[in-house]
Amino acid sequence: MVKLAIAGGTGVMGRTLVDVLTTQSTHKGIVLTRKAFKSETAIPHVLVDYNDVKALIKVLEEHEIHTIISAFGINGTSLSVSQANLIKAAEKFSVTKRFIPSSFAIKYPESGTQILPPLQSYFDSLDLLKTTSLKWAVVHNGTFLDHFFPPSLKSRYNHGTLVIDIPHVKAGIPGSGDELITLTYTLDVARFVIAALDLSKWPRELRVVGETLTFNQLITLAENATGKKFDVRYDSLETLKQSRITELPGHMNDYKKCPKEVLLTFLSIFQRWMAEGLASIPIEGSLNGKFPDIKPLTAQELMEKHWKSL
Ligand SMILES: NC(=O)c1ccc[n+]([C@@H]2O[C@H](COP(=O)([O-])OP(=O)(O)OC[C@H]3O[C@@H](n4cnc5c(N)ncnc54)[C@H](OP(=O)(O)O)[C@@H]3O)[C@@H](O)[C@H]2O)c1
Asked: Which Pfam family, any one of them, does this sequence belong to (predicted)?
């Protein structure tokens, strides 16, 4: 049995991990949170102050935490202060042996800090982990498949529009559309990561692959499922490098949460990495191979089962 602490277990990926943890009885866990939170689950929520390393150590001691999964969103001080202090506390408490820093995405290019400065705190966390005796691994799952979900399908991810706007039958594809991208359902990411608690050794990357395909293939699947011909535009790498992308009708709704200029620039960075072929996760050595009984939802199944009927 592994005693697990999910830091940021009140967020999208964190709550999905909690969802999976509650479906099994082998491992036990707590959620670390900065705010009083009415838990929907039987997993205890423990209030913490991430600025106080000594207090963090006490929490780890009290709950005999062996493994920490950080599911912080990447913002402001979440990684530079909160995650860094959690790593320091984990290193000091002898029972805590393993740490997953917030990742759950692609293998970010180190040069990415030039266009996305907050990524620096991500790489700083990895550098800090390298100085510790902790066993640690990042989770690489590509892009969340949930971006292409119909509203009827269960997901903790209240996502915006990304590349293919299925309800409006339009798409703004990064690059040629023939670059491979890995799409994985958040629930499947969590299922594989919780299963990985059973492994005696972790590779440096915990890879999880829902399905790897191209955007052109995804468009064909969407067209076949909906029976509609999509209006497809392509954004060249040069366009993406100028922080420009094809604006889709679904983006208008997303501007309510994030100003247009900020959102389109942010999306252009991720779409640039997609066009550069950086968004696919190798299946070799992945958790899929270690846990063949876990069958992740594929993009093909998503389209055939969940968009066809709408
Ligand atoms: N691959 C993809 O397509 C994709 C998409 C989205 C996100 N992601 C990645 O998934 C990971 C988790 O993201 P998410 O969207 O699940 O996160 P989120 O919901 O934005 O945040 C998770 C939790 O982090 C905690 N938090 C936020 N700021 C904090 C701070 N300064 N200090 C301490 N805790 C803080 C909050 O918990 P409390 O308030 O309870 O403390 C929050 O509920 C990130 O690494 C993100 O980049 C990947």
From this structure: NmrA
> How far is Cα 105 from Cα 188, in angstroms, rounded to an integer?
13
CATH class of 147-181+211-279+297-307: alpha beta
| Alpha carbon nearest to ligand 1 atom 20, residue | 73
Is the model's pLDDT at 42 over the cut of 90? no
Q: Distance from first CA to last CA of the chain, Å, rounded?
A: 43
Residue 37's pLDDT is 67
- The answer on pLDDT for 105 being more than 90 is yes
Assign domain 3-136 one CATH number from 3.40.50.720, 3.40.50.2300, 3.90.1150.10, 3.40.50.300: 3.40.50.720
pLDDT for position 251: 98
Residues 199 and 215: their CA atoms lie apart, in Å, by 34
If one residue of 16, 72, 85, 206 were mutated to test the ligand 1 pocket, choosing by the most ligand atoms within 8 A of its CB, it would be 72
Q: Is the pTM of this model over 0.85?
A: yes
Distance 72 CA to ligand 1 centre (A): 3
Is the pLDDT at 198 greater than 80, yes or no? yes
